[in-house]
Amino acid sequence: MNDLKGYFKGEHIVSFDQFDPRSLDVLFTIAKQMREVAQNAKPSRLLEGNIATLLFYEPSSRTMGSFDAAMKQLGGNTVVVTNPQQFSSAAKGESFQDTIRTFEAYCDVIVLRHPETGSVAKAASIAMHVPVINAGDGIGEHPTQALLDLFTIFELKGRLSGLKGLVAGDLLNGRTVHSLLKGLNLYGGNIVYLLAPKELQLPMEFPDSNLTLVTVEDAHDIPRDCDFWYWTRVQKERFSNPADYERVNNRFVVTQAMLDTYGSRHMILMHPLPRVGEIEDAVDEDPRAVYLKSQIRNGMYVRMALLALVLGKAP
Amino acid sequence: MNDLKGYFKGEHIVSFDQFDPRSLDVLFTIAKQMREVAQNAKPSRLLEGNIATLLFYEPSSRTMGSFDAAMKQLGGNTVVVTNPQQFSSAAKGESFQDTIRTFEAYCDVIVLRHPETGSVAKAASIAMHVPVINAGDGIGEHPTQALLDLFTIFELKGRLSGLKGLVAGDLLNGRTVHSLLKGLNLYGGNIVYLLAPKELQLPMEFPDSNLTLVTVEDAHDIPRDCDFWYWTRVQKERFSNPADYERVNNRFVVTQAMLDTYGSRHMILMHPLPRVGEIEDAVDEDPRAVYLKSQIRNGMYVRMALLALVLGKAP
Amino acid sequence: MNDLKGYFKGEHIVSFDQFDPRSLDVLFTIAKQMREVAQNAKPSRLLEGNIATLLFYEPSSRTMGSFDAAMKQLGGNTVVVTNPQQFSSAAKGESFQDTIRTFEAYCDVIVLRHPETGSVAKAASIAMHVPVINAGDGIGEHPTQALLDLFTIFELKGRLSGLKGLVAGDLLNGRTVHSLLKGLNLYGGNIVYLLAPKELQLPMEFPDSNLTLVTVEDAHDIPRDCDFWYWTRVQKERFSNPADYERVNNRFVVTQAMLDTYGSRHMILMHPLPRVGEIEDAVDEDPRAVYLKSQIRNGMYVRMALLALVLGKAP
Hints:
Chain A is of the alpha/beta class. Helices cover about 35% and strands about 15% of the residues of chain A.
């Protein structure tokens, strides 16, 4: 590992496309150590004296809380700036460039959330002294979400190749699904079943790749030996005709009966959260349900690892 | 004390009713040590590496500031989440359960403020890994306010039994008064005089108890040897007829003359704050006035003690 | 230096007028050490255990971020309270006095931003235990802005006397300009050229002083050997007649051509920020442009120094 600690040092983390199996291996190895820090080896002073500016142009308590806690779990601290377009000099007409140049002066790393696609890449090109980490830019990228999903599979299934999985729900608009598939395509021998309303089919292909995609039309077509299910929400507003939504909605709710019928014993059930009814609460108690138990925490561990890496302080 | 340090470890603090004289003795002993930390023995690293999520569904700068400072005085840190119902996934329809499960993943303790009575008890039943502390749930409980009031009497009068006191103002709706009386009822030989407009009399009784309650009708009926006065606000909106309010309002303002006429020399004058005129500013300089001098600080010390206890790190 | 470390200990920082060349020398010497801390000597524990309450009655992400980072760069922490008039007991009618007395109880220093002139002086007269630092009170004072401007000249030109400079833009309303001139007037032999629309001329005089002021009417009257230019914004809303604004506006934008024609090689180009077009973006790359490169960071260093001084912990 010693020669890998320099990975990402000082680098902007703009897109999931920056990662390959080798760098993911580094990241996930460190994320596991971070879990140990947060659970058993506190206090850590790894990032003592380091400051992250959490620059959020739109609210996102969950992502902000995760990054905020990640810095603090490692003994670092944060400066929180929300809605600068409304409450700061940006409201007086200051350019995005001047805002980024201002807030980078106070800190060692900027974590940026912005409603406009491409704005994190723009910020990365502006910042002269500190790395910028993408915490979601509109319908663009949200790389740490993708990283935590892959890390969860890696950790709980022990590998990222030779997997059989299911992704279900809104595959057309589901940014997290697209990133997950991109990630699995980096490894060999994965096969993923796609279950979606006909209005919300996957819009992308992975030709000439090791990733095999198989469209299924109903739950009874799901193979009984999946390693994971990755469930997402079907949003009412995606349908021009409300009746179409009502027709498909019930088919896209995970119940205990459905899990017991179609799921394997060793599988894990994932969800990017938030959920609004598409997995029944009763399922939470099933040991296979990992969205609350593992994914949320893994998000913090992956962010801890990423912050340590870009700050050049990975353990 | 050694055998008492385990008190409250990992426990939710939902209601003042969880406390008895033995546990209050533990808490107040530690709160005194916390005053020493904040005033003379800084920096403390008692809670280094620990994170409290301050989850506030309604704003309360005072209570939030007190808890926030309490963690930081002890070398801990906080993740602040305000109005998650508006700014986070909860706005997208996420359940209260998922919100609690999410934010507990980032921290070691949740401090929860919520406008609905019972929501802290609900959160406590949801949280699987961390204790939840009630920072006020609507017209329900606000146990740390009650604890700081009792601690202030204990500290400044040296005991919580054999006291003679006065509570005045709105005794009908005054949550802090009700908790104070409950607390004094845990000890022996206390007598409390009640002074309130006839519309706002105390709605509860303490039959078969050691606490003696005596209703008085006017200031000249207050015994001259009280150990404490606990004053509260009479709110205009409690009266259906504004004329009734005007009639009683002047009688429920503490002036220096009134304090000198009816108060004892050794008494303390308390108020839960905020006040809006019901104690004249001139009275602040009187050494008996402890609402600004002691109660606010004591609130922080009690919260420091409570955080240390539930985190299993009491000194 | 040893005998100077006590400077400002426990003092309120309300106005720039509290400073003289001797105390500025102390402050700037420490600010240079602070730059070393932030850039090379992290982590610092100088302010470990100390808490600053950032009490902001109006939003100002830039100033708040700078103070917030300043505390954290030194191992201290902050309690952030925004808009207490809206979100705290102040909303219930609590007096300014009670609000200050409350928040001082939680911390070691209050940093106060308020829209009303004089409110910081008022807060300073109320606070009984902790120093109050002015982070801007309406059209009144914003002393740390003035201090960072002087520090920038001192650091980059090596002295604060015998300088030749230009101030340009809105000299009538420009609070930062007035403070800068006051500062330069503390030292000997400075000459400052004033370039402003006739509607926005400097409203003050410095009679019987060492500071020489010379009004110029156009860019070609600027002497070619200035040590600094200090540029400010001409705001449209200052003109009753929009046509007047249009007429002057173009003359008050710094372009690369203008800088190359009228500026000296060794000069520095300053701006208090935010800017809204009055310095062309292309100029940012010029080594003489120090508003983004130096001034923002210097603001943090000066605030670090000031916090350490009032807390009695200057290195």
